[in-house]
Amino acid sequence: MHLSLLSSSAQGFLKFERDSVPFFRGFAVSADLVGLAQMQLGDYGQYEGALRLNLHDQYFPILEVGIGRANHKDDEVTGITYKTTAPYFRLGVDFNIMKNKHAPNRIYAGLRYGYTSYKVDISRQPFPDPVWKWDTSYGVVDEQCSQHWAEVIFGIDAKIAGPLHLGWSARYRNRLSHNDGQMGNTWYVPGYGTQDTSNLGVTFNVIIDI
Amino acid sequence: MRCFCLFAFLLFLAACSTIDCPVQNRVAVNYAVKAFVGGVEVNDTLKDTLYVWTTRSDNDDTLILNRGINVSSFSLPISYTHPEDKLVFCIVDTNDVAAIDTVWLKKEDIPHFESVDCNAHFFHTLTAIRSTHKAIDTIIINNPNVNYDPSLEHIHIHFKK
After folding, report:
1. For testing contact with chain A, the best of B4, B9, B80 (most A CBs within 10 A)
2. Whether the model pTM is above 0.80
3. What pLDDT shows up at residue A6?
């Protein structure tokens, strides 16, 4: 009985509401500010924009594209330098889970599929072998890597004035498959974040309705 | 206010980072002392005292295994990027008579990366091994993959009785 209640609740916010509002309600473009801030404040981040369709204020197919970049030079403990720059995309859909679908503000739950193909440079200044003392070179240049992942999203979208909205989203990312090249692992994956089987992310978006 | 607190909490979670360097991060070649009994290879123990040294880049010798007594297995370091390691095994019996053998270990070296927070390491694939035979009867590669796994027996070594 509990499961059927949950199922009917999920079907509730997915169910198309028949009313006089047109099905196609336009589209919106947005830019993420969290990735920008990461780029300014740390060694990695991304420039990301999105195009979102509005279907009846209920369903929002979305395409997010961006360029992720990492430039971690001479780590102060390990001396490792890590560089990568690559595009990525995420394709998905958001669902408005507000009771009043046509309200100016929205609460979303959504899903994404993400993919990136990127090259990494990993290096370290030559260092002596601990036993034999030979100078050792370490690193790789232009190592080809790739990753597929899925995201579950929860977010809000608040209308500020006219076509301007501000919104944030929290994302749980899960890696589906990955190729980390010959060195076994990578660190920053464009669009995904620092490497792990799963991680949490946040975006803060400036959105313009078109 | 509640939404702001939830957002701040999620931002904090997303900002947290962990350093996930493996606890077991020693790369070494594991030798197992073996003997043939009835044509079957079984575990054995070296009753003599074993010393192993190698020659550094400055031509000085360095001891890498000191006074191994009753060893049935032992681990030796492996060079990061030299194509062939040369090791000198000195086996001293109970009468203080020493026998010296040289072991040459050829390998391929693969740089290994975990994270920018974790030290640089190398994994290796052992390709060939040979030795002189004053005290060593047979030496063979059992598992060529040298990585963080300490349970792998890379080399099986048979000493003369």
Report:
1. B80
2. yes
3. 45
pLDDT at A82 over 60: yes
* CB-facing half-sphere around the CA of A161: CA atoms within 13 A: 0
At residue B66, the pLDDT reads 95
A121 CB-side CA count, 13 A: 13
Q: How far apart are CA B40 and CA B38, in angstroms?
A: 5
Q: How far is A179 from chain B (nearest CA, A)?
A: 14
Other CB atoms within 10 A of residue B105 CB: 26
Count up the domains in chain B and report the number: 1
Query: What's the domain range around B39?
Result: 2-159
The full set of domains in chain A, from first to last, is 18-69+86-114+146-209 (2.40.160)
Q: Which amino acid, one-letter code, is at B53?
A: W
Q: Which residue has the tokens 């002596």?
A: A128
* Distance (Å, whole) CA A172 – CA A110: 11
Q: Which two structure tokens, joined as six digits, stand for A184?
A: 């076994």
Residues within 8 A of B (CB atoms), A 142-181 only? 156, 168, 170
* Per-residue pLDDT, A190: 96
d(CA B98, CA B27): 30
